Amino acid sequence: MTAFEVMWNEYYRLALERVNGMVRPLPVDYPFYVLIEASGDDAHRVHADLEKLLDRAMRANMILDAALSRSNASAAAIWRIRDCSLQLARTFPYAARIALDVSIAINRMDQYVKTIVARIKEINPGAFTIVFGHAGDGNLHVEPHHEHTPDRRQELERLAYQITSEFGGSISAEHGIGIVKRPYLKMSRTREEIETMRTLKRALDPNNILNPGRIFTM
Length: 218
Hints:
By secondary structure, this protein is α+β, with helices and mostly antiparallel strands. The protein has helices spanning 9-18, 43-59, 72-83, 85-89, 109-123, 153-166, 191-204, and strands at residues 3-8, 32-37, 100-103, 128-134, 139-145.
């Protein structure tokens, strides 16, 4: 297995609706969609194994539906849906979109997403949350959209990170802390952990010339 990607319904449905050139492999009314890719030196065997896997999963009622690519072109068409996140984001006003990059334990992902969707709506009933990511390593991209309350961005962002903390997650999975996430670092790292990071920074960069001010202040 070389990929195990997940797309919640809002992401999949809106990508097909709002991004040009998308081909729909499955209906848009399922709660979420998983993209599995497998690689090997025997393409026919890999394809046959995936067919057997999907057949067993459907017989066991683990999945509702499936589409299996038959060519590089059909595989690329499916990947275009997962890879169009930037194009999809650009179809919404920038000021009303919050982009989070979090990590959550795989067995808590579903409840985490349900919680963040519900609590964002408590603040703004018209808001919705797009979620997709790398389920195989616990990395989710969570994007609350709040077009009618752009002035409450900081409040919604803090709420989203607070929920991530409540679920024992990290506020950054792959894109780092930098300056933007610096105020929220303490939500997923203890004071002792942050001080350990400072100690390493002092040891490796005593003159504080490497990205000063990123992650934390010295």
